[in-house]
Amino acid sequence: RRLVRFRHNLYPIGKGLTAKFIYSIPGRIIAISKAVRDLLIERGIRGEKMTIIPDAVDPARFDPRVNDVREELRIKPDTLVIGNTSGFTEVKGQEYLLRAFNIIGKTIPCVLLLSGRLNEPYRSRYLSHVDAELRDRVLMPGHSEDVPSILKTIDVFVYPSFLEGLGTALLEAMIMGKAAAVSDIPTFRDF
Fold first, then answer.
1. How crowded is residue 113: how many other Cβ atoms within 10 Å of its Cβ?
2. CA-CA distance, 147 to 154, in Å (whole number)?
3. Are 170 and 191 spatial neighbours (Cβ–Cβ below 8 Å)?
4. pLDDT (tens digit, 9 = 90+) per residue, 137-156?
5. Mind listing the pLDDT tens digit for each residue in 25-76?
6. Which of 12, 80, 86, 135 has the most CB atoms less than 10 A away?
């Protein structure tokens, strides 16, 4: 039997003996993207030992014909919706999107829709990046199992992440036909 290891993120790999051992014993390493493969090569792992197999999105589930949630979220039909559906972690960059909304929201009639699991006090901390007079236009409905309907509601998908192994949320937005504005990072350059 051969051991296969899967690597799906760009978090730093240790330099110690344990890390060397963990990556030396598999017969094959599956990297989720070229950026992940490059990181492993930088750490001295042989490229011929690796295969890139990107994650996939089920096109049957992410069907652009689904209903949106504008009515449920009380968004007027003609309102521009800027949004993001990725998890809330520091590397996803939502803080920068919220800060940018201070400029965008004052010049363009729009709302910002951020869907993902975010409990207090973190929700309030994220929201504190938005000027008080714009906060009622920031919608944070929490985690949703119905990501396709959330994406259907979003007109412009913004992904300000600065560390992504692949960026599955971007794949989901793209398959839904959404315009996307993304950060300039190696992973997104491969799209």
1. 25
2. 11
3. yes
4. 999 999 999 999 999 999 99
5. 999 999 999 999 999 998 888 899 999 998 889 999 999 999 999 999 999 9
6. 86
End-to-end CA distance of the chain: 35
In 42-171 the beta strands, taken as DSSP E runs, fall at 50-52, 80-84, 110-115, 138-142, 156-159
Residues whose CB falls within 8 Å of the CB of residue 76, separated by 6 or more in sequence, listed in order:
70
Residues 6 or more apart whose Cβ sits within 8 Å of residue 40:
7, 13, 23, 29, 31, 50
Distance CA 159, CA 89 (A): 12
Quote the pTM value: 0.87
> How far apart, in whole angstroms, are the C-alpha atoms of residue 82 and residue 176?
14
CB 98 within 8 Å of CB 112: yes
Residue type, 118: L
Distances (CA, A) of 86 to 104, 117, 132, 161: 20, 9, 24, 9
Phi and psi for 88 in degrees, rounded to 5?
-90, 100
